[in-house]
Amino acid sequence: MLEGGPLAAATEHTTANPAALREQFTIAHEQGYATDKDETALGICCLAAPVLNHLSHIAGAVSIAGTDPGLRTESADMAKAITSAAAQISQRLGHIGTP
Known about the structure:
It is built from three helices and three strands; from the N terminus they run H-E-E-E-H-H. By secondary structure, it is an alpha+beta fold. A three-stranded antiparallel beta sheet has the order 1-2-3. It is flat, with a radius of gyration of 14 Å. It starts with 17 loop residues before the first helix and ends in a 7-residue tail after the last helix.
């Protein structure tokens, strides 16, 4: 998927460049969650954290979406909440360590 040319953009804020998207993946991995700010739909923001299974494979995600600026102004608190919830679910699935 990321080996070809630019990806389809849903809005002018969508990351359509594969190299830029890889960089966003790196940032999401380092901080433990991903963000979407106006990339899928204008005025909508999303935060998501991975849920890992006993093999440390992604089994799902915990996410929250809301309107901008509502979610954007509370994103630090929301990020803590979703990463905590994802970690708890991951532990129940047998994951050991930090997602």
